Amino acid sequence: MDIITLYWIVIALMIIGVIGAIIPGLPGSSIILVAILIWSIATKFAGIDLPLILIFIVLILSAGVEYLGVYLGVKQAGASKWSQYGAIAGMILGFVGLIPAFFVGAPLLGFLFGAILGAFCGEYLYRSNLEPDARFQQALKASIGVFIGSIVGNFIEALLAALAVAIFIMSTWSEVIVQ
């Protein structure tokens, strides 16, 4: 396989990685890191310099942004740790429970909606000392915080992933054109 074909395959993988950064639960940053590793091995690690080191740093940061977004969303909503535990349990159960419907994207929806429902249930159980209406309102507020935090986290993660791809293209394009 020639280097130009490999380059376009690596770019295609990176675009899939950026899309994966947008969709909750997909390993967007990891796909981009694998693509860079493939490129680095194919070029015998020639050109590993400051731009590629920056890409690794950006992608490592972006990997934690989604989880940080959910955490901050829950905190901003004034929710308890129970809603955070519920969100984590809901993500896992939603993803695993919908694996049989994998080809229609159900596990990804289960990941997101499981977190929202899990946060609601966790907060509802924790706030047992409140009146039913106030208890419901607080649990709803926690689940909205999880949803907004997840969306904001995914958006920032996608921006960081796109930035990493742009840095990669700018730092490697001249090597490919020369070929």
Keywords:
6 helices, elongated
Please characterize this protein's 3D structure.
The protein is mostly helical. The chain has one domain (3-178). 82% of the residues lie in helices and 0% in strands. The chain contains six helices and no strands. It has helices at 3-22, 28-42, 50-76, 81-97, 106-126, 132-178. Helix 5 packs antiparallel against helix 6 (132-178). It is elongated and about 70 Å long.
The overall pLDDT, averaged over residues, is 82
What's the total helix number? Answer: 6
The ordered string of helix (H) and strand (E) elements is: HHHHHH
Helix share, percent: over 70%
Main sheet specs? none
> Given the C-alpha coordinates, what overall shape results?
elongated
- Termini separation (Å)? 13 Å
Task: State which percent range the strand residues make up.
Answer: under 5%
Q: Radius of gyration in whole Å, from Cα?
A: 20 Å
State the secondary-structure class.
mainly alpha
Q: Total strand count, please?
A: 0
The overall number of domains is: 1
Uncertain runs:
none
Question: Secondary-structure blueprint of this entry?
Answer:
Elements: H1 3-22, H2 28-42, H3 50-76, H4 81-97, H5 106-126, H6 132-178
Q: What would you say about this model in short?
A:
The protein is mainly α and 179 residues long. The chain has helices spanning 3-22, 28-42, 50-76, 81-97, 106-126, 132-178.
